[in-house]
Amino acid sequence: MPFLSFLPAPIRRNLAILLGSSLLFWCSLSSLLPIIPLYAESLGGTPQQIGWITGAFAVGLITARPWLGQLADQRSRKLVLLIGMGVAAIAPLGYLLAPSPNWLMLFRALHGISISAFATAYLTLVADFSPVQYRGTILGYMTLGNPLGTAIGPAIGGLLLAHSSFAFVFMMAAGFGLAGFLSSSQVEPPPLPAISEADRGKPFWYSFDRAGLAIPTLAMLLVGMAFGVLHTFIALFIKSLEIDLNPGIFYTAAAMGSFCVRILVGRIADRWGRGLFFTLSLSCYTLSMLLLSLAQNSFHFLLGGLVEGMSMGILIPIVSALIADRSYPQERGRLFGFCITGLDLGIAFAGPIFGFLGAWLSYRQMFSIATVLPGLAIVLFMTQGGKNLLNSLQFAIGWGKDAYALPDQE
């Protein structure tokens, strides 16, 4: 990994292992993205039930995040990492046992624990290994496993389904998860920072409020709702228009957009600030949902996917760096977990809400409504993201510093 040559060899080794594990994890998870809605439909699922199945995945995420973040801070980041990979290896096999959409919903909820554990531990470990002055750069590179995995996984999943069966795709996803578990077991994490009795006794909300994470979390929730609409209904939307496009290729386009921007965004954000790129990511997501709501052919869908991927490619590294800038190591796991829970909640709400509305709305109308959500997040961040209106606006357009960043993190 020559781009990390400025780091000591043991840290480079651990980051290389983590990046490989991340690639395997996201290959496992994303290979099922275009498959689950179709599998649920094959079991007799209605659009409303498919929405609940997607929301069930986020329920597993949400319920597990609080205690997994605490476990990562107080016990072991590596243990939480292995929990995530272990669930990713086991859960796909459960889908083979699902006789109905209701059972599929249960296994989907269990599968949600995998992201909750893996993402929290992974981002926290990368932040632990990263010098402050290179944090955005390293997080930008180290989150490349997500777009690479989501480029490979859905395309393979869609291709295998076209030439084999659902069972074969599920077994492949389990194989990726097992390989990632074995890889993750080789990570040697740094020692956990000591937690004083005074800090241990402070409520979580003290750290959350001090770090000013309410608005970023709310913005993540709004983006998560749009994200949930997209990933629940995009395959069905394409199918309803009778467009000859493998949904897996849509996810590949999104992954390509995400990959391209992550290479540069962290390095630039280390110099220009997090706020400008947070605003840019929300703007890109609004544009992507608008493009999809107007889509008429394969090119339109692929363009919308490309822009959506660019948005997430900016958002995840920037939010991760923002949280790290505002947190002490001994609270980082919980703050990472809680802020990203905003995204989880959005996904959880989107499936059931829009699945219910699907009885009256077309897929195109759903995407039109979803366009408003990240637009609202832009307004909130630009007016409420700092300690006052002026600071919020300056930070959001890159003209001011982060008022909540810790002194030794700037």
Automatic annotation (TrEMBL):
The chain crosses the membrane at residues 50-68, 80-98, 104-126, 138-160, 166-183, 211-236, 248-265, 277-295, 301-323, 335-360, 366-383. PROSITE patterns: MFS. Its main location: membrane. Keywords: Membrane, Transmembrane, Transmembrane helix. Residues 14-386 form the Major facilitator superfamily (MFS) profile domain. SUPFAM superfamilies: MFS general substrate transporter. GO terms for cellular component: plasma membrane. The keyword Membrane applies. GO terms for molecular function: transmembrane transporter activity. Pfam families: MFS_1. It is a multi-pass membrane protein. It is found in: Cell membrane. The keyword Protein transport does not apply. PANTHER family: QUINOLENE RESISTANCE PROTEIN NORA (PTHR23531:SF1). This is Major facilitator superfamily MFS_1. It comes from Cyanothece sp. (strain PCC 7425 / ATCC 29141). The lineage of its organism: Bacteria, Bacillati, Cyanobacteriota, Cyanophyceae, Gomontiellales.
